[in-house]
Write a structure and sequence with these properties.
Distance between the termini: 45 Å
Strand content: 15-25%
CATH architecture of the largest domain: Orthogonal Bundle
Number of domains: 2
Length: 399
């Protein structure tokens, strides 16, 4: 009974451990894929002879991902150390149990040999003083035989378990060795990148004021674009209110639009990315510039670096609310999902038109590539009415 209780406790614990291991491995794979993409960005930046600021931003991105990869690999090594220690304890315990079982079994075999003749067993039964005593002696002999069989089976099972633990231990030590080697190589790569970055930063500091001014100018343009997007959303809200004969600060939704919004919310954290493949180069909210630390930037969405000629796609079904052609910026597509709006900025080509009904993952347009830097970036934002939301909380596995 106790064995069943322990088994019921152990199964979910082992399952959780396997899930955690798989999650770490998946996270590691994503980081490795991102580093491959960043390496491509660094090559493009060098080929285009981009300015120092662009180079430093890209190299800093790789340093951040490389550092994250090293920390994650250390976590995997620590987990393996724990598993190895548990395995060693299990092996030690099993060996002790096997020694005890084999000793008991040997004693039983010796005893059985002394009384192995059928005549001895028969005399043991016939010497009973009563039928009841003979019956009990017969039952005892059967139990003794069953116990011997059980002991033999336990020895076989524990021997097999010990062999499996030993095999697992060899594999774990091999995995640990590989992880340590991977981390050693990753650290060497990081040290090399850091040297390159330090040289670029020294060059950057010579013109830091000029770059800070460029960043502020770019931030000002971004704020103007964001204001225009907010104005368009407010105009759409006002139109929905006018049609319903009411006045509120949010969309007045039809039953179908309410159902769409509810479905959108139920998929929070599971929405597909607005690109098939990309890396986050700027996160949501107010933050210090990753390179020019004296400058603060604000983003009401996320910026994704993607391969050249990549396509932007809708994260959910909805209706094209508007296409923004704002002075000083590339086309922007706004898609409505009930009282939620998604925004896709920096397109070079647009494949949809205002009023179109679109599906999840449908192509919206081609993303613009900057000729000077070689960067292809999409700015993605998500709004509840006019309030910006953090896309990392909505998109699948965006950390």
């Amino acid at each position: 009974m106790k064995q069943w209780v322990w088994l019921l406790i152990l199964i979910p614990v082992l399952s959780m451990a396997q899930d955690k291991k798989a999650a770490l491995e998946a996270q590691k794979k994503r980081l490795q894929q991102e580093i491959v993409q960043i390496n491509a960005l660094i090559k493009t930046s060098a080929k285009k002879r981009a300015n120092v600021l662009t180079q430093v931003e890209t190299v800093q991105l790789k340093m951040d991902r490389q550092d994250a990869l090293i920390r994650l690999t250390n976590r995997q090594i620590n987990r393996l150390n724990q598993e190895i220690n548990i395995n060693l304890r299990n092996i030690e315990k099993l060996r002790a149990e096997l020694t005890s079982l084999k000793k008991d079994y040997a004693e039983m075999v010796v005893s059985a040999r002394k009384n192995k003749s059928s005549q001895n067993r028969l005399m043991f039964l016939l010497s009973s003083e009563s039928f009841w005593q003979a019956y009990k002696r017969m039952a005892y002999m059967k139990q003794y035989a069953a116990y011997r069989k059980q002991q033999g089976e336990q020895i076989a099972a524990k021997t097999k378990a010990l062999q499996q633990y030993t095999t697992d231990l060899v594999a774990q030590r091999k995995d640990k060795k590989q992880l340590i080697e991977q981390n050693r190589e990753a650290q060497k790569d990081l040290d090399s990148i850091r040297k390159k970055q330090n040289a670029l930063v020294l060059e950057l500091k010579k013109r830091e004021k000029n770059y800070a001014a460029q960043i502020k100018q770019k931030q000002k343009q971004q704020e103007e674009i964001d204001k225009e997007i907010t104005r368009l959303i407010r105009a759409a809200i006002a139109a929905s209110n006018k049609k319903a004969g009411t006045k509120t600060g949010s969309f007045v939704l039809t039953p179908e639009a309410k159902a769409l919004a509810a479905s959108f919310v139920s998929n929070k954290g599971r929405l597909p990315w607005p690109v098939e493949k990309g890396i986050v180069t700027q996160r949501f909210g107010t933050q210090r510039h990753p390179v020019v630390r004296t400058t603060t930037i604000k983003s009401n969405g996320v910026t994704l670096s993607v391969p050249a000629e990549a396509t932007a796609r809708s994260v959910f079904e909805g209706k094209v609310l508007n296409i923004v052609q704002f002075k000083g910026s590339n086309p922007i597509v706004l898609v409505q999902h009930g009282n939620y709006i998604t925004s896709y900025k920096n397109l070079s080509k647009v494949y949809v038109k205002k009023g179109d009904r679109i599906t999840a993952k449908q192509a919206i347009g081609q993303i613009f590539t900057n000729r000077d830097t070689g960067k292809t970036t999409l700015q993605f934002s998500l709004f509840y009415n006019t309030t910006p939301q953090n896309p990392a909380l909505w998109l699948y596995q965006m950390k």
